[in-house]
Specification:
There is one protein chain. This protein starts with a strand and ends with a strand. The protein has nine helices and 16 strands. Helix 3 (about 130-145) crosses helix 8. The chain has two domains: about 1-130 and about 285-315, Alpha-Beta Complex (Quinone Oxidoreductase, Chain A, domain 1); about 135-260, Rossmann fold, CATH 3.40.50.720. By secondary structure, the protein is of the alpha/beta class. Bound molecules: NADP nicotinamide-adenine-dinucleotide phosphate. The site of NADP nicotinamide-adenine-dinucleotide phosphate has 31 residues, from helix 3 and helix 4. The site of NADP nicotinamide-adenine-dinucleotide phosphate (NAP) has 31 residues, from helix 3 and helix 4.
C-alpha cells in the first residue's frame, strides 16, 4: 500500500523528512478494524513526529491521525486518539493514533473498532477527514471546558487555523456571537464567511469583554485572551503554535475571577457528539487544499508557513 511515513526525523526540515512509498498493509488485531482510507488531514502533531519530538516506532512510521474512508462497507471517520487501545491508563487524550505506529496516511489503516463514526453524508472525503483532531479539540474546548451557551460571545484567536476555523463554525452553529482575530486581513475576511460576526486585528480591544476565549495560538495571544475576557470569563488553551510560555497578568486573573483551562483533543463520546452535531447542522469544515498523497510534503510546508486557511488534506484514492 502507498503511505506517507518518516524514517529519519529532521528537526530543521520536517517537511523534507516526509517519505512516500510502498509499505506492507497492516492487519487488524482483535477489537480493531481495517479502514480503506480515502482522505487524510495533517496536524501540527505530524510536524512534531517529522521533527523527532515524538518517540517513533522502529522502522518506517506512518504519519497522520485524521482520516475518512470505508470500513466493512460503511463510510466512516475515525477517532484520532489512541486511548481506546489502552483504556486502563489515566492519560489525557494527547496520544494520537499515529503515535506507537498506527498512523493513517496510508491506503489501509487499522484503528480500534469503537473509534469509528458514520461519515456525515453531506461532506466530501477531504472535508470528513478534516474533522477528527481539530474539530474534536474545538468541540471539547467550547462545549465541555468553556460550557458555551447560546447568546454568549466567544473570541477565537488566529482565525485561519484548523482548530480556529472549527471553533468559529461550531460556536456560530450553537448560537454564539463570534469575534475573531487574525494576522491576516484576508483570513479575517474569510472567517466572516464561515460564521464569525466581527474580526479584529491581533491584540486589538474587543468592543465588549467576551464570555469565552478559544486560544490555539499560544504565547503570542494568551495575554490578549485574558485581557479580553469579562469578569468570570473562561479562557481555554490547546496550543502553542507561537511558543509554550507567555506572561500572565495574575492581578487580572484574580480581580476578574477568570478561569484558564487547558484542553486536549476529546473523549470518544465527545467525538461521536461532534460528528453528529456537524451532520445535524450540515456544517462544512473548511479545507484549505487537497493534494495527492505523493505531495504530502507540500502540505507540511504550507502548515509551517502559516499560510493555510482551514485544514490541509491529502487524497489517497
Ligand atoms: N491540545 C490538543 O489536543 C491540540 C489539538 C489540535 C491542535 N493543537 C495545537 O493547536 C495549535 C493550532 O493547531 P491547528 O491545527 O489549528 O494549526 P494550524 O491550522 O497550523 O493554525 C495555526 C494557528 O496559529 C495562528 N498563528 C500562527 N502563527 C502565529 C503568530 N505568529 N501570531 C499569531 N497567530 C499565529 C494562526 O492564525 P492566523 O494565521 O489566522 O493568524 C492559526 O490559528 C497547534 O499548536 C497545535 O499543536 C492542540
Amino acid at each position: 500500500m502507498r503511505a506517507a511515513f518518516v524514517t529519519a526525523p529532521d528537526a530543521d526540515d520536517p517537511a523534507g523528512a516526509v517519505s512516500i512509498g510502498e509499505l506492507p498493509a497492516p492487519t487488524a488485531d482483535d477489537g480493531w478494524v481495517e479502514v480503506e482510507v480515502h482522505a487524510g488531514a495533517l496536524n501540527m502533531h505530524d510536524v512534531w513526529m517529522l521533527r523527532g519530538a515524538v518517540p517513533l516506532a522502529d522502522g518506517p512510521t506512518v504519519i497522520g491521525s485524521d482520516c475518512a474512508g470505508t470500513s466493512g462497507g460503511a463510510d466512516v471517520v475515525v477517532y484520532p486518539v489512541l486511548a481506546l487501545a489502552d483504556p486502563g491508563r489515566n492519560v489525557a487524550h494527547g496520544t494520537l493514533v499515529s503515535d506507537l505506529g498506527h498512523g493513517v496516511l496510508s491506503e489501509v489503516a487499522t484503528v480500534p473498532a469503537a473509534g469509528i463514526a458514520p461519515k456525515p453524508a453531506h461532506l466530501s472525503w477531504a472535508e470528513a477527514a478534516a474533522l477528527p483532531t481539530a474539530w474534536l479539540t474545538a468541540y471539547r474546548m467550547l462545549f465541555t471546558q468553556a460550557d458555551l451557551r447560546a447568546g454568549e460571545t466567544v473570541l477565537v484567536q488566529g482565525a485561519g487555523g484548523g482548530v480556529a476555523t472549527a471553533a468559529i463554525a461550531l460556536a456560530s452553529a450553537a448560537g454564539a456571537t463570534v469575534v475573531v482575530s487574525s494576522r491576516s486581513p484576508e483570513k479575517a475576511e474569510r472567517a466572516l464567511g464561515i460564521g464569525a460576526d466581527l474580526a479584529i486585528a491581533p491584540g486589538a480591544r474587543v468592543p465588549e469583554l467576551v464570555d469565552v476565549v478559544i486560544d490555539s495560538v499560544g504565547a503570542a495571544t494568551i495575554g490578549h485572551s485574558l485581557a479580553s475576557a469579562r469578569v468570570g470569563g473562561r479562557v481555554v488553551t490547546c496550543g502553542s503554535s507561537t511558543g509554550f510560555t507567555g506572561a500572565i497578568d495574575l492581578g487580572r486573573m484574580f480581580a476578574r475571577e477568570l478561569t484558564l483551562r487547558g484542553s486536549t483533543t476529546g473523549t470518544l463520546e465527545e467525538f461521536h457528539r461532534m460528528v453528529a452535531f456537524v451532520a445535524e447542522h450540515r456544517i462544512t469544515p473548511v479545507v484549505d487544499s487537497v493534494v495527492d498523497l505523493a505531495d504530502t510534503e507540500l502540505q507540511v510546508r504550507r502548515m509551517l508557513e502559516g499560510a493555510a486557511f482551514g485544514k490541509l488534506c491529502v487524497s489517497l484514492r
